[in-house]
Design goal:
36% of the residues lie in helices and 21% in strands. It contains 8 helices and 10 strands. Strands 2-1-5-6-7-8 form a 6-stranded antiparallel β-sheet. It has a two-stranded antiparallel ribbon with strand order 3-4. The protein has a two-stranded parallel sheet with strand order 9-10.
């Protein structure tokens, strides 16, 4: 037997057997598929890491645009950062209804604070469906040329049908008249619950009142006008009952005793 014949009959290692296999063999097909998945996942991961700072900047800019819009001073022709400089951010302590200097408003993260047991409380009565409520939130003051408060922008959030809606409500200086409501993040059904973004529906909030003359919270998002009167009523979203209920609940939660009421009372009394 020749040397070549001896080599042919020798047991082959895994790599040699793999290389000798046909291109359409199961081994090579699986190998190529796994290799492509690994390479693709590495590219996606690298892209996600490299793009994260840009995504965070864009998210912050979008949030600032929404604050400008809900306050009625957004101008697409102007730089967002320049326009946003008109606002005075303050960190509010809900339990006292007063501003606090424990945190820097420029870097304070409301969502992180809401998840941190040291700065939040678990809710047993939770109509907004948020689980935990942060006890410190960033609010935005817009002052007039004389330095007096013109509008107050308050963050709020709560669960709708499919998602947590995050947004802002803008109040006039009296802390009772609504200038506007706007959500900047949600995943509600397009054409139904997502109509919270419809300019015509958002315009319904302008001029409505949170509370009646006795100071009782009356604002409602319902089909029928409540006994308190149309000045406290916003029409429900057509075909989006659960999203409507969610918006009603979250607005009443945040504007009520467990939310901003103490702060709004202090605002009316001139204490802030």
């Amino acid at each position: 037997m020749s040397d070549n014949e001896n080599k042919t009959n020798e047991p082959q290692g895994f790599i040699r057997r793999f290389l000798a296999a046909p291109p359409d063999s199961v081994q090579k097909t699986v190998f190529v598929a796994v290799a492509l998945c690994l390479v693709a996942s590495m590219i996606v991961s690298a892209a996600a890491v490299s793009l994260r700072p840009l995504q965070e900047v864009n998210a912050l800019k979008d949030k600032q645009v929404n604050i400008l819009q809900v306050a009625g001073i957004y101008d697409p022709e102007k730089d967002v950062l320049e326009s946003f400089a008109a606002f005075e951010p303050q960190v509010l302590e809900l339990s006292t209804g007063m501003f606090t200097d424990q945190f820097d408003p420029a870097t304070f993260d409301d969502r992180a604070a809401a998840d941190d047991p040291a700065t939040s409380v678990a809710l047993s009565d939770d109509p907004a469906g948020i689980g935990r409520q942060g006890q410190f939130v960033t609010v935005y003051l817009l002052r007039d040329e004389a330095g007096a408060i013109d509008k107050v922008i308050l963050p709020l959030h709560g669960y709708g049908l499919w998602s947590t809606l995050y947004g802002f409500i803008a109040l006039e200086e009296n802390g009772n008249d609504i200038f506007g409501l706007q959500f900047y993040e949600h995943a509600e059904t397009p054409g139904l619950g997502a109509e919270v973004d419809n300019p015509r529906w958002k315009a319904l909030w302008n001029g409505k009142k949170l509370a009646d003359d006795a100071g009782d919270l009356q604002i409602s998002v319902t089909k029928a006008v409540p006994a308190a009167g149309p000045e406290h009523h916003i029409d429900a979203l057509a075909g989006a009952t659960l999203t409507t209920v969610g918006v009603h609940n979250l607005v009443n939660f945040w504007m009520g005793e467990t939310g901003y009421k103490l702060f709004l009372d202090n605002l009316k009394a001139g204490k802030v």
